[in-house]
Amino acid sequence: MSLKKESLSVREAQKLVLLSQRLPTQKVVGSAQEATLSAIEHLGYVQIDTISVIERAHHHTLYNRNSRYKSAHIQELIADKKVFEYWAHAASYLPMTDYRFTLPRKQAIASGKQKHWYKRDTKLMKSVAERIKAEGPLMAKDFDKKGKKHGEWKTAPTKQALENLFMEGELMISKRVNFHKVYDLTERVLPSSLNTTTPTNDEYGRFLVKKYLQANGLGKLTEMTYLIKKTKPLVTQALKNMLADGEIEQIRVADNEYYILPESLELLSKPLARKKLNILSPFDNLLIQRKRTSDIFEFDYLLECYVPQQKRKFGYFTLPILWDGKLVARMDSKADRKEKVLNINQLTLEPGLRKTEAFADALTKELQPFMKFNECNSVVLHGIEPPSLKFEFLRKFQSLDFQ
Length: 403
Fold this sequence. Notes:
The chain is of the alpha+beta class and 403 residues long. 36% of the residues lie in helices and 18% in strands. It is globular, with a radius of gyration of 22 Å.
């Protein structure tokens, strides 16, 4: 039986969001690969990113939901036709069970109602598709590379044709080889039993609402439609219908009004593992929407790898740190895999963090599996803010060098 509440404290809202996000890392049943699939199905998507100073974002996000995660899981799940690549708010891995809800975007792009960033060359697209049909799965490098690169993306025409066919749904990514996409015909990638009917507007709108709220605990219209083009009218209508049907409720947190699934309030009766610490990816689902992160966790975060070096405050690639149910620090890190050293260029504690010794203990405990995850066996702390704590943290980290 669900609870009924009109408002939540900020602390309650934080707890609800974290438990909905399956953070801190929770114990999971079944095989390690099943736990990875469960995480992707629950979150709805996991963002793919190319930056590899620390293990890539998609692996990092799943590592924080599944302590037994292995980087091979994603490609295994793609081979088993349980996960596929497409676009959420960015390039992502999605559960195959949600495939039909990518069709509205694909059909809008194919019809010209929604623009993609590459200009369509229908003749070249047809030629590329016919070659894949005849030869089987191919990578961009398998096509003629003599074509002049053009457009602001400076991408080869055949690569642009492949990406257009992918975004329109004619092609899918059957696997990756050294992170390079391998394209194949959609009918050869999809499971034969999969429901591929296009959802109605009402189905699609309700899907976006429910999927978001299940994974995030509470949300606003702007958050549910974040970077998903032309969905605000559908989601607005879905919210109205679902409120009338009692499927969702409105709830206030401080000065913000959110939507929530009534059954999600039951999570508030469950414990939150506050002593467990997580070092998060900048692209983790918990904090990818920076304004939301600021509103709920009072944590202002900017990924500074896109900021000129002289203007950086915290470092090139800072990893937010979750502990005690809050975002309490950020760690600018780089894994030197050749030397097997995890470099912490700068560890910055939030001004409100008072229990520094307990935090140092929790960080030390988490750093050991995190180092292994990043193929490192030692750690070097180069700087800390405030500097007066450097000796305390260095003393804790002494136990971390291992072979």
